[in-house]
Specification:
Ribosomal_uL18_bac/plant/anim; 4 strands; Nucleotidyltransferase, domain 5; RNA-binding; alpha+beta
Length: about 120
């Protein structure tokens, strides 16, 4: 029987997360969540279980709420890079979850790199 889209998503998410756990060397995790209307990102310290910084397209200044496009994702990526610098974080692992590294997720990662965050 073929896997459903949801089952494939969960398999991808677990595969990515497990690889990050194995190769993590004390770095923070940059976790992305993309919905149909918005995109959000968190900088998470897994050792202490604390969110250090976050950014979302729901915040003011990122364009119209519900307008989930590549430009909005790039603005969110630049914002998380700026907030990470303020928190003293220079490098992190990029946790795309079960989302493909394409389109909005890629734009967010590229903008965070341009903002000075090593991913």
């Amino acid at each position: 029987m073929a896997n459903s889209k949801r089952q494939l998503f969960i398999k991808r998410r677990l595969r990515v997360r497990n690889k990050l756990r194995r190769t993590n060397r004390g770095r923070m995790r940059l976790s992305v969540h993309r919905s149909n209307k918005n995109i959000s990102v968190q900088l998470i310290d897994d050792v202490n279980g604390v969110t250090v910084a976050s950014a979302s397209s729901l915040e003011k200044g990122f364009g119209a709420v519900g307008k989930n496009n590549v430009e909005t994702a790039a603005k969110v990526g630049a914002a998380i890079a700026e907030r990470a610098k303020k928190a003293g974080v220079e490098e992190a692992y990029f946790d795309r979850g079960g989302f493909l590294f394409h389109g909005k997720v890629k734009a967010l990662a590229d903008a965070a790199r341009e903002g000075g965050l090593k991913i």
